[in-house]
Amino acid sequence: MKQRLFEQYLDECPIVAILRGITLAEIPAVCDILHEHRINLLEVPLNTPNALEAIALAAKHSEGRQLVGAGTVLTSEQVKLVKVAGGQFIISPNTEAAVIHETVRQEMLSMPGFLTPSEALAALAAGAHYLKLFPAGNFGADYIKNLRAVVKAPIFAVGGVTSQNLAEFLEVCRGVGIGGNLFKPGKSLEAIHRDASLFTQIAARFRESHVKQAH
To answer: What digits encode the pLDDT tens for the residues 49-107?
Structure first.
């Protein structure tokens, strides 16, 4: 069920908002703005102060309209804590089989980070549902295109995704994760609104152009 809903939100907008450093006070308004722009997959990295409280608050505030998960998850114990807090997916910067196994055991979605084909295949063998190329901006869309010859799984580009390269990544990826270019601590709500609109318009134009091409 969670994967079906995750996929539904991806079809509406293929962006995971990375809310690193978000404060508890910022959560309601930021979640509302992102939902207004159909960005309904929200990641709170665990190196955010009060991360588990933030996940719990965001999950409660956004119940029924957005999915909230954790990023920068490095241990299986952290996976359990995220589950208790109400998180529904686990994103890591690396490929760690124990984290993937625990995520699957807890019936959450797993998206470990990888860089090489070996890491990608190891992650899939451990049960990962999605893969996160990080840092994607350093390697570009062509690298992912080449990887797809051997890596038969949905890949997300994370790290260095901008309004200039978003369409290129969407050509070869299931989705992208956007952090500082979308949200950063202290960023005004007006600026978040503006940037969310920019990224979602690019994604919508990309989808529309491919629908036309398909017909």
So the answer is: 999 999 999 999 999 999 999 999 999 999 999 999 999 999 999 999 999 999 999 99
In contact, 48 and 54? CB cutoff 8 Å = yes
Find out whether 11 and 41 touch, Cβ atoms under 8 Å: no
Q: What angle do CA 145, 205, 182 make, to 5 degrees?
A: 80
CATH 3.30.565.10 fits 2-208, yes or no: no
Q: Domains of the chain: which residue ranges? A: 2-208
Dihedral pair phi/psi, residue 86, rounded to 5°? 105, 5
How far apart are alpha carbons 140 and 169 in whole angstroms? 8
Q: How deeply is 200 buried, as exposed, middle or buried, from its count of CB atoms within 10 A (0-12, 13-18, 19+)?
A: buried
SS3 33: helix
- Both tokens assigned to 204: 């919508």
Catalytic sites, residue numbers: 43, 132
Beta-strand runs (E) in the chain: 15-18, 41-45, 67-71, 89-91, 109-111, 113-114, 131-133, 155-158, 175-178
pTM of the model: 0.95
54 burial via Cβ count (<10 Å: 0-12, 13-18, 19+): buried
